[in-house]
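Pilot study result, target chain (376 residues):
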Amino acid sequence: MTCPPFTYDPLTDRRRRPRDTSQHPTVGHVTHVLVTGGAGFIGSHVVAALAVAGYDVTILDAGHPVGHRDALPASVHGCRVHVGDLRDPHAVRAALAGVDAVVHQAALVGLGVDLDDLPAYVGCNDLGTAVLLAAMARTGVTRLVLASSMVVYGEGSYTCSVHGPMRPAPRTAADLAAGRYEPACPDCGALLDPALVDESAPHDPRSVYAATKVAQEHLTAAWARQCGGSVAALRYHNVYGPGMPRDTPYSGVAAIFRSALAAGRAPRVFEDGGQRRDFVHVRDVAAANLAALTVPATGWRAYNIASGRATTVGELAAGLGAAIGGPAPEVTGEFRLGDVRHITASPDRAATELGFRARVGLTDGLAEFALAASPG
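Predicted structure:
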């Protein structure tokens, strides 16, 4: 269906007066885009950005109950939501009618509760992706933007002052319980210095969710080779912003901290709070998806979607607390084996090849996010 021609400012999240989109350039005749998971946190921002750019948008979303989503809305930014599960070939083929490209956002995210969630993760993320790709091959849709994740890397990049670049082994429960959080060189035992991870780093998934994202990348690469399609795999780093789900086992750390502050509680920071992450605003992520559709593309290519700036988890908690006038974070020493210590991205490939750089500064983004009402 065609979305109404409202405009959407990716920096302010505000609607503005309609503008003429008739001269919007398309690449490879992409005018009609299917957004899977388009009613979700990131997907809804992607839909808004695409609508502003003049694309026709179809949304397919199942509102999966494991993620504790509320009832699906009838529309997102004026585009009707088609309720359907990616594992249903009939629903997927119907949603692909007239489509030129797919932006695949649908997934079950986060670390979940325990391994009882494993079948749900594999079913939603991998089987759903396989059904989507098979239907795309059958219907001749050959352009895909995939929502991948930085979790495919496992730990970030590190260097040893003696031995150079190093890939540390997974941290052990014994080390974490003893407060030994920093990865060490496997050759000499010296503590490693964190560095920027780029897209050439090998896959090293450390959780079930991460394993499903690696599988999605491999499935889409095989699909692209066999059908001559193109895939931009956008490896999102820590996404935050308006519309982020409330505190659930499937939420990101920013949402968990904000929920605590909204209840008047101090955010509980695991380990020593020194874990480095790369936080990127959801409107920047939406802009990256748009950029991936508007440049020539062939084959399979991965891109870090990130700011390139390191922020510790403790700094994030303190920043949110300062923005909302809440208590200082409580550093607990707790840990989760699925977590990694440091991961900050190099944004250079996305800047060079997609023309994308994150624009929302962390201070402004956190101030907005801290005061935003949680979705009902």
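One observation from the pilot: Residues 118-139 form the longest helix (22 residues). A full batch analysis is planned for the follow-on phase.
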